[in-house]
Write a structure and sequence with these properties.
This protein has 4 helices and no strands. By secondary structure, it is mostly helical.
Length: 131
């Protein structure tokens, strides 16, 4: 069982954003699964790399959409993205090089960030875009 479940309250009503959000949730669940199964550093490393790369790509797409719609919250939203990438990168680097293990608490923290970000910050933009 994965850490997050996709449900209607995560849907924003924009097919492109919702589709990418679903992929991010799947990647987070794969990362969680690899950790729980003790699949080793290589699996966790490749899964975390995909998650990080996909998140960066998704964030860039969102920011481009926000820019094209002259979204007034772009700068704030971009900063949220930068901070998440930095925190996740720091967490992954600690796992790889310091032999520390990623805990369920860290994964839950990621889940909470993603859920809140989708439901509050991304929802603000989609609402703005639909006006």
């Amino acid at each position: 069982m994965g850490l997050m479940r996709w449900n209607k309250c995560l849907e924003l009503g924009n097919l492109e954003i919702d589709g990418q959000h679903k992929t991010l949730v799947e990647a987070l669940n794969n990362f969680h699964s690899a950790m729980l199964k003790g699949e080793g550093r290589s699996e966790v490393s490749s899964t975390s790399k995909f998650l990080l790369d996909y998140a960066a790509s998704h964030f860039a797409m969102e920011e481009k959409m926000m820019d094209s719609h002259a979204y007034p919250g772009l700068s704030f939203h971009k900063n949220l993205h930068v901070n998440l990438i930095a925190e996740f990168t720091k967490m992954i680097n600690g796992f790889k090089w310091e032999s520390s293990s990623l805990t369920i608490a860290v994964l839950i923290s990621l889940e909470e960030w993603v859920t809140i970000h989708f439901m509050i910050e991304d929802a603000k933009f989609v609402k703005f875009m639909n006006k």
